[in-house]
Amino acid sequence: MTPTTTRGTATIADLYRTEGKAELIGGRIVRYMATGHEPNRVAGEIFVALRNYAKSLRKGFAYTDSIGYAVPELSNGRESFSPDASYYDGPLPQNRMKFIEGAPTFAVEVRSENDYGKVAEAEIAAKRADYFEAGTKVVWDVDPVNMCIRSYRADSPETAVVFQKGDVADAEPAVPGWRIDVAELFPD
Fold it and tell me: Cis link prior to 173 (omega < 30° from 0)?
């Protein structure tokens, strides 16, 4: 995750002109550095499983980490998200070249090398709260170092269900019936 921030009063229009992964928070464009092998590989596996689910049901869409979700300004000033992987089953933008207008139904955040420690934990919790405020139903905090998934639901946002190797993870109720074997994400 490890962001760098551009100061000023930026808008969604400015975000459209920003290269690379970035989000709009409090009138600032917050850029995110590229991720390493393992976090990207894990996010890719989740995306592929979500894409297969969406295609098989012909419902919703799976997205990689480059998608932009524009949301009405939240209490902390956030106006966008760009999760590492996501699923969305709402209305698409009239101009399909634009960001999705609304929050992802299901958001996946995969921890990178610098996403550990007290400061990182606080940032991850704050972003998760933002997702729920915007209307996301389930948020996954995927931890490649400890090889687990912490799943949070909007109806109990402070309580994680932890999935580890040997478990089959779900994203209920956001992605009904979808499952992924945790061991597939973290092979030996």
Answer: yes
**CATH no. for residue 62?**
3.90.1570.10
Does 111 fall in a domain?
Answer: yes
Instruction: Report pLDDT digits (tens) over 37-59.
Output: 999 999 999 999 999 999 999 99
H or E element, residue 172: none
In this predicted model, what pLDDT tens digit does every residue of 126-139 receive, in sequence order? 999 999 999 999 99
d(CA 67, CA 81): 8
Domain with 158, as residue range(s), is 35-185
Report mean pLDDT in 10-residue bins for the chain, 188 residues. Answer: 58 91 91 90 98 97 95 96 97 96 98 95 97 98 98 97 98 98 92
> Is residue 144, in this structure, part of any structural domain at all?
yes
Contact 106, 137 (CB under 8 A): yes
The answer to whether residue 112 sits within a structural domain is yes
Strand order in the sheet with 22-25: 3-6, 28-32, 22-25
Question: Is residue 23 in some structural domain?
Answer: no
| Residue 167 burial class via C-beta count within 10 angstroms: exposed 0-12, middle 13-18, buried 19 and up | middle
**Alpha-carbon span 162 to 7, nearest angstrom:** 37
